[in-house]
Design goal:
The structure holds 2 protein chains of 2 kinds. By secondary structure, chain A is mainly beta. Chain A has 2 domains: about 1-40; about 60-345, Neuraminidase, CATH 2.120.10. Helix content of chain A is about 10%, strand content about 40%. In chain A, strands 1-26-25-24 form a 4-stranded antiparallel β-sheet, with no helix packed on it. A 4-stranded antiparallel β-sheet of chain A has the order 2-3-4-5, with no helix packed on it. A 4-stranded antiparallel β-sheet of chain A has the order 8-9-10-11, with no helix packed on it. The longest helix of chain A is centred in the first third of the chain and has 24 residues, at about 15-40. Chain A is globular and about 80 Å long. In chain B, the strands form 8 sheets. In chain B, strands 5, 6, 7, 10 and 11 form a 5-stranded antiparallel β-sheet that branches. In chain B, strands 4-12-9 form a 3-stranded antiparallel β-sheet, with no helix packed on it. Chain B has a 3-stranded antiparallel β-sheet with strand order 16-18-17, with no helix packed on it. The radius of gyration of chain B is 29 Å and the shape is globular. The chains are: A mainly beta, B alpha+beta. Chains A and B meet through helix 1, helix 2, strand 2, strand 8 and strand 12 of A and helix 1, helix 2 and helix 4 of B.
Chain lengths: ~350, ~575
């Protein structure tokens, strides 16, 4: 038998039966350890391999919704969402706070209250986490970005000099990648990028207008290794830039002509708010007034939309913030239904 | 045994390799995605947002955010008395029958500004097959829907009524704010709270009243998102069912649809309207009411929704022959029918809209200036019936002897006309026209002529309705007291007042609390930069803790803006009357 032959050859090389058994036990322990680790970090190692690679990515499926928990826990007009270290952070805007949930949607804690001081909010909107899981919260009315520990303790105002001045105008959506915080700014109608370490502005894209590379009320930004996606909300389109800020193309899924005098638009990206990109390269955009989330492939071609107006599971009423995590989950803040719905590829 | 060990060992090895390869590709789980491929790129260069056009919505070519479509439409730049949702597009009339179903598909009434550009937006309020309310409306989410954009997230594109700022500027909205942030003092028309319209102070409704008293109050109670009626700020032309249900016979002559048809007036040569194209005539309905001394045309618009508020047009008073081959439009707030000039008469039935007019200069800019023109007292009075003391008598002016303020009607008054030569009418009380149970009390009159700026010691800058009319001696522009003189429509909070107080009201050096500057007086309460307020040591707060009743300035500051009781004035600064 072949295996007997293998064993004989091993014996010939000086690997005894005893040693082989030790090796086997060691391997077994290693595997057990790996799976224990996988269990504790909540990740199924087999999943990415089981996931089929399709030429036509399918829309995600609804999993569950987060409404908040306990007395005084109900979300009220949630605007933004992000995920860090298996925790879901939601800006509970009309309650002037951030609520934190575990990966299954169980409430953990909340922080922040109505006010203008440290750790207080007027209109908490965009939210993002850096590589140390510190949480950045944009306050659109208070014109600042505050940084918190993962447990919600105030650390500092981001990018504010000694005089209290800041390049941050009227922040909406936030996104962090490669040591940079990207901020969508309503005041300047541009996307600003800040170096997280130095807190200095290192990049700015766009200005007010309807042309290519211009924005009216950008509400979100998402960055991949080679592209920057901007939810150009009042122009009803997603604009795509290279990471060095060059305009590439527009994604709207229809005929949308912001410069036109009379054209009627059928853009799918009607009042697009949150944008995000998943591991398949699918770009998502939440249509606030369309009450759906539309998907585009990595080349900008419109794929489909999921969700419709309603209050049932899997429906939206004024979807706004959007976040995609590395498990293929899509989180959508449903501000009219006061919840965050979670979808999965 | 040996075989088993070997098989087990090999299996484990394969599984290990398998698992390792899977885990090797992982980044920490439960993290917001970085998306796409994982190659790194540098960002040495970036575009700089300098230069280029400044957008300012001032109507100048190439500078308006919303482009030529709105520049062509004077409604948008709001320079000439048109409003943001009032349209003046004409166009050649159809020659092949009813190209336009009047009142339903009027092509010139813009639906909520640029909103109609993408019809997917309709679905934010309506559902074709699954609606839960009448008119295919979704559930009661009007306020949430409005606030989804009017909370500041639409940036420069619209008003942020949630924090009370124009666009993304720091300029405050003229209509006030719907405060959400906790503040020491705030008040608002509570669009969030689920109160009924019948809760309106001064709105003494009767149980049989046909109005919408029982309906819940929200944004749509006052604003019509479709821009129906071409009113200022898309104000509802049928607020609280007013156009349907006002008392018959006196307010206007059309009270029941299809029970009467009235002749429209040929306005082809009237200065208030653009001349029609050669070979065509324009007709408008001259309603038997309008604001006294308004200077505006008497011509009316119609309520066209909810169904069946259809406007119907005929060629005869008997309503035997329907008018064909016309184009309907809205011009200067009036419903206009354009027909070939061979047409001799046009008759109309429908529900006459409640008109509200104002001018907006510098629309949606930090320098926006709003001038009210007319209709506000009627509009507010649709719910706050008792407080509207400015409705108008529609009989012959000659039958009137006194104005609402008790002064005699003069011979000159009886000759006043609007700019088109229509005789203007004398004000009377709401009791004659409005539904609801009218209760009598002494109330501050609205709708009277307060004279030109500075007249009778009035300071400039008060928020009057500014109207132009003709007298025997010429054209007069004058100020008329309205609800808006003392109140804002939306609400107030500390921050809004602070900003308003810094501007001062009507040139009176009111501090933020409406206290008067007294020589040698202790420093009054002030707001600090962070909107907290402080009181002088030892003094009781003068802050109105019971809510501010949507007053333009705190406490009784609005009274003081006219009736300045400061020392030296002896309380008689207004010379025309002893107040």
């Amino acid at each position: 038998m072949a295996t007997t032959g293998v064993l004989k050859r091993l014996n010939q090389k000086g690997i005894s039966k005893k040693n082989f058994r030790r090796l086997a036990i060691l391997l077994l322990l290693l595997i057990v350890a790996l799976f224990i680790i996988s269990y504790f970090i909540g990740y199924n190692p087999l999943k990415p391999i089981l996931q089929p690679l399709t030429l036509y990515p399918s829309p995600p499926a609804y999993i569950f919704s987060i409404y908040g928990q306990g007395a005084d826990g109900q979300l009220k007009k949630p605007m933004g969402v992000t995920v860090a270290n298996s925790r879901i952070y939601i800006t509970d805007t009309s309650n002037f706070r951030v609520q934190v949930f575990d990966y299954n949607g169980k409430a953990l804690f909340k922080f922040g209250k109505d006010g203008k001081g440290q750790g207080e909010f007027q209109f908490p909107y965009g939210i993002a986490a850096d590589s140390n899981n510190q949480i950045y919260v944009a306050d659109m009315w208070a014109n600042n970005v505050q940084v918190f520990t993962p447990e919600g303790k105030f650390i500092k105002y981001f990018a504010r000099d000694k005089q209290g001045k800041s390049e941050i105008g009227k922040p909406t959506g936030l996104f962090i990648r490669d040591g940079k915080l990207y901020e969508a700014d309503l005041e300047s109608n541009s996307i600003k990028a800040f170096d997280i370490a130095t807190e200095k502005k290192v990049q700015e894209i766009g200005r007010l207008g309807k042309g290519n590379g211009q924005f009216v009320a950008p509400n979100s930004v998402a960055v991949t290794s080679d592209k920057i996606y901007v939810g150009d909300s009042q122009n009803d389109r997603i604009q795509v830039f290279s990471t060095d800020g060059k305009f590439l193309y527009v994604m709207d899924g229809g005929t949308n002509a912001p410069n036109s005098t009379s054209a009627v638009s059928n853009a799918k990206t009607l009042t697009v708010r949150g944008v995000g990109v998943d591991g398949r390269g699918v770009v998502y955009g939440a249509s606030l007034l369309g009450n759906y989330v539309c998907g585009f492939d990595s080349k900008g071609k419109y794929l489909w939309a999921f969700g419709q107006q309603g209050l049932e599971d899997g429906q939206f009423y004024l979807p706004n913030g959007l976040c995609v995590d590395n498990q293929g989950r899509i989180y959508v803040t449903d501000q009219g239904n006061n919840r965050v719905s979670v979808w999965e590829n | 045994m040996k075989k088993l060990s070997i098989v087990a060992a090999l299996t484990l090895t394969f599984v290990l390799v398998f698992a390792m390869s899977a885990l090797a590709a992982l980044t920490p789980p439960g993290t917001a995605t970085q998306g796409g491929s994982q190659t790194t790129s540098t960002t040495a260069n970036y575009s700089s947002p300098t230069g280029g056009t400044t957008f300012n919505n001032d109507g100048a070519a190439g500078q308006d955010l919303y482009g030529p479509a709105n520049q062509a439409n004077t409604a948008w730049s709001a320079i000439s008395g048109f409003t943001a949702n009032q349209n003046v597009v004409g166009g050649a009339p159809s020659t092949t029958g009813d190209s336009v179903v009047a009142g339903y598909n009027t092509p010139v009434t813009r639906i909520h500004s640029n909103y109609a550009k993408n019809t997917n937006a309709c679905a934010s309020c309506h559902a074709t097959h699954t609606a839960v309310g009448k008119d295919l409306l979704q559930w009661n989410g009007e306020t949430e829907t409005c606030m989804a954009c009017h909370d500041g997230t639409a940036g420069v594109a619209t008003y942020d009524v949630s924090s009370g700022h124009i666009g993304s500027s720091t300029a405050i909205t003229n209509g006030g704010v719907f405060p959400t942030v906790n503040q020491t003092s705030k008040s608002m028309h509570d669009v969030f709270g689920g109160v009924d319209i019948k809760a309106a102070p001064g709105g003494n409704f009767g149980s049989s009243d046909p109005n919408t008293w029982g309906a819940e109050f929200n944004c749509v109670s006052c604003h019509n998102p479709h821009g129906m009626g071409a009113n200022f700020r898309i104000l509802n032309p049928n607020v609280n069912g007013f156009a349907d249900n006002h008392k018959a016979g006196t307010y206007n002559t059309i009270t029941k649809k299809f029970t009467a048809a009235v002749a429209m007036t040929d306005v082809s040569t009237k200065p208030s309207f653009a001349a029609p194209a050669t070979g065509y005539k324009k007709f408008a309905y001259k309603a038997q009411y309008r604001d006294v001394y308004s200077g505006n045309p008497f011509y009316a618009n119609f309520v066209t929704a909810p169904y069946p508020h259809k406007v119907s047009l005929f060629t005869d008073a008997a309503m035997a022959t329907a008018l064909t081959g016309y184009t309907a439009s809205v011009e200067n707030g009036a419903y206009i029918v354009t027909v070939p000039d061979t047409t001799t008469a046009v008759y109309v039935t429908g529900y006459v809209a409640l008109p509200v007019k104002g001018n907006i200069n510098g629309y949606l800019t930090a320098n926006e200036q709003v001038t009210y023109v007319n209709g506000f007292n009627d509009f507010c009075g649709a719910c706050h019936v008792d407080y509207n003391t400015s409705m108008y008598y529609t009989g012959s002016p000659t039958s009137m002897t006194t104005n609402t303020d008790g002064t005699p009607v003069t011979a000159a008054q009886k000759t006043y006309t609007d700019l088109d030569g229509n005789k203007i009418l004398i004000p009377r009380h709401a009791v004659d026209f409005a539904t609801g149970v009218y209760t009598q009390a002494y109330r501050h009159t609205v709708g009277f002529d307060a004279g030109a700026d500075g007249h009778g010691g009035l300071p400039a800058g008060l928020q009057f309705e500014v109207r132009t009319y003709k007298t025997t001696t010429g054209t007069v522009t004058s100020n008329f007291m309205s609800c808006m003189t003392c109140h804002v429509a939306h609400g107030t909070d500390d921050a809004w007042w602070q900003a308003y107080g810094q501007k001062t009201y009507a040139g009176v050096a009111l501090n933020a609390f409406g206290a008067l500057p007294q020589p040698g007086a202790a420093a009054a309460e002030v707001f600090s930069a962070d909107n907290t307020h402080t009181t002088p040591a030892g003094s009781a707060t003068t802050f109105n803790t019971r809510g501010s009743n949507l007053k333009r300035v705190p406490n009784m500051g609005a009274c003081e803006a006219c009736h300045n009781k400061a020392s030296g004035a002896m309380g008689y600064n207004i010379s025309t009357n002893n107040y």
